[in-house]
From TrEMBL:
<keyword id="KW-0560">Oxidoreductase</keyword>
<keyword id="KW-0827">Tyrosine biosynthesis</keyword>
<dbReference type="InterPro" id="IPR046826">
    <property type="entry name" value="PDH_N"/>
</dbReference>
<dbReference type="InterPro" id="IPR036291">
    <property type="entry name" value="NAD(P)-bd_dom_sf"/>
</dbReference>
<comment type="similarity">
    <text>Belongs to the prephenate/arogenate dehydrogenase family.</text>
</comment>
<keyword id="KW-0520">NAD</keyword>
<dbReference type="InterPro" id="IPR002912">
    <property type="entry name" value="ACT_dom"/>
</dbReference>
<dbReference type="InterPro" id="IPR045865">
    <property type="entry name" value="ACT-like_dom_sf"/>
</dbReference>
<dbReference type="Pfam" id="PF20463">
    <property type="entry name" value="PDH_C"/>
</dbReference>
<feature type="domain" description="Prephenate/arogenate dehydrogenase">
    <location>
        <begin position="2"/>
        <end position="290"/>
    </location>
</feature>
<comment type="pathway">
    <text>Amino-acid biosynthesis; L-tyrosine biosynthesis; (4-hydroxyphenyl)pyruvate from prephenate (NAD(+) route): step 1/1.</text>
</comment>
<dbReference type="Pfam" id="PF02153">
    <property type="entry name" value="PDH_N"/>
</dbReference>
<keyword id="KW-0057">Aromatic amino acid biosynthesis</keyword>
<dbReference type="GO" id="GO:0006571">
    <property type="term" value="P:tyrosine biosynthetic process"/>
</dbReference>
<feature type="domain" description="ACT">
    <location>
        <begin position="295"/>
        <end position="363"/>
    </location>
</feature>
<keyword id="KW-0028">Amino-acid biosynthesis</keyword>
<dbReference type="GO" id="GO:0070403">
    <property type="term" value="F:NAD+ binding"/>
</dbReference>
């Protein structure tokens, strides 16, 4: 049996455990310092076995996944370097930053084990094992950052195991990873949080802000609900990159201030033009770091039973919905229903069926 050990069975650790559990020749062991968490992992059947003992978990492990917050990764790697591990054991992590853990591994003697940094670039704003799902990583990029000391055979073994996630593996230098992911994931999280806090401040004097913000504003700021500890650790760890990105962000804000002060309408239009061009060159509907679901919107007339009709239409054709949300339902305007799917093929089939029935559908 190939033994896979997961330290930190939360959203990401739990989702990896679910990808591997029950697969031929694999056994999955979870670790937590907290005995109640250990009981929870077993009860939820996320792992085959769980323990509070780090030594027991690591003994004879073929693969070790460190899935704890970024601020605890070094400490786990240092502890593992003091435990006798199986020769050729592969240690990897899932942290959202890669440079500091790579540097830590390079400083340590890992007793014939190999460290290969990793970052599955999919997730959600929810945390904990309760939010874990086996399909979280499907079609997402999964970054690996092996350094030159890692034998090809070790990389190949990890890549083969990760096929169970159905993610797309990509090798990236750890420092470059932190710069790029800082820009496309960490900076948007800061902007979303700052924006929500700005509006929350206005709302203290008038709750119309909150009432009108229910639709689009709520959607574009979803990532502001990320776990505070996970994000504290990511941003502190990547602080040098973030400080530079925020200085650049200040320049973008200043540019808009100037354009407005000068009432430069052409300049403002040009900003939208340039942004729209770059945005339309982004890969469409491929799972990226900030989206985790396939969604469509249906305009629905406000009459009783309409939601039942739509769900029945899809259900009868075996199209699986992962979520359904009524965005607007007032007597005087048609409602909008947001339907979410886990798989692109189900989204495509739903589009086809709804159009056949003359519903107005937007992707
Ligand atoms: N949330 C997301 O969408 C993504 C997160 N990541 C990375 O994955 C790692 C785990 O994040 P999530 O699974 O989202 O978080 P989570 O909060 O769902 O899971 C964290 C796990 O670590 C344990 N833990 C928390 N504090 C600890 C400590 N001080 N010592 C030991 N164990 C501790 C928790 O009990 C839990 O099992 C982080 O390094 C994060 O940067 C990577 C990709 C996506
Ligand atoms: O909620 C979302 O869409 C995310 O942004 C999830 C996420 C969080 C952290 C990562 O390192 C990668 C992905």
């Amino acid at each position: 049996m190939t033994k896979i050990v997961i330290f930190g069975v939360g959203l990401i650790g739990g989702s990896l455990a679910l990808c591997f559990k029950g697969k031929p020749g694999l056994t999955v062991v979870g670790h937590s310092n907290n005995p109640q968490s250990v009981d929870k992992y077993i009860k939820r059947q996320v792992v085959d076995h769980a323990t509070t003992s780090m030594e027991e978990a690591a003994a004879d492990a073929d693969f070790i996944f460190l899935c704890v917050p970024v601020g605890n990764l070094d400490e786990y790697l240092i502890k593992l370097s003091a435990i006798p591990l199986k020769p050729d054991c592969i240690i990897t992590d899932v942290g959202s930053t890669k440079a500091s853990i790579a540097a830590c591994a390079a400083r340590l003697q890992l007793n014939r084990a190999f460290f290969i940094g990793g970052h599955p670039m999919a997730g959600k704003e929810k945390s904990g094992v309760e939010a874990a799902t086996s399909h979280l990583f499907e079609n997402a990029f999964y970054v690996l950052t092996p350094d030159a000391s890692v034998p090809d055979e070790a990389y190949r073994k990890l890549a083969e195991l990760l096929e169970w996630t159905r993610a797309k593996l990509i090798k990236v230098d750890p420092v470059l990873h932190d710069e790029v992911v800082g820009a496309i994931s960490h900076l948007p999280h800061i902007i979303a949080v700052a924006l929500v806090n700005q509006i929350a401040g206005y709302n203290e004097s008038n709750d119309l802000y909150q009432n009108l913000a229910a639709g689009g504003f709520r959607d574009i700021t979803r990532i502001a609900s990320g776990d505070p500890i996970i994000w504290r650790d990511i941003l502190i760890n990547n602080r040098e990159v973030m400080l530079k990105l925020l200085a650049d962000w200040n320049r973008e804000v200043d540019r808009f201030i100037r354009l407005l002060e000068e009432q430069d309408g052409d300049g403002i239009a040009k900003q939208f033009q340039t942004a729209g061009e770059f945005r339309s060159s982004l890969p469409e509907r491929r799972k990226g770091v900030l989206t985790s679901v396939y969604e469509l919107y249906v305009d629905v007339p406000d009459h009783p039973g309409i939601i039942g009709q739509i769900t029945m239409l899809l259900g009868n054709q075996k199209v699986n919905l992962s979520n359904i949300h009524i965005i607007e339902s007032r007597e005087d305007v048609p409602g909008v229903l947001r339907l979410s799917f886990r798989e692109e093929s189900h989204l495509d089939r739903a589009l086809e069926l709804l159009k056949q029935e003359n519903y107005t559908v937007h992707v």
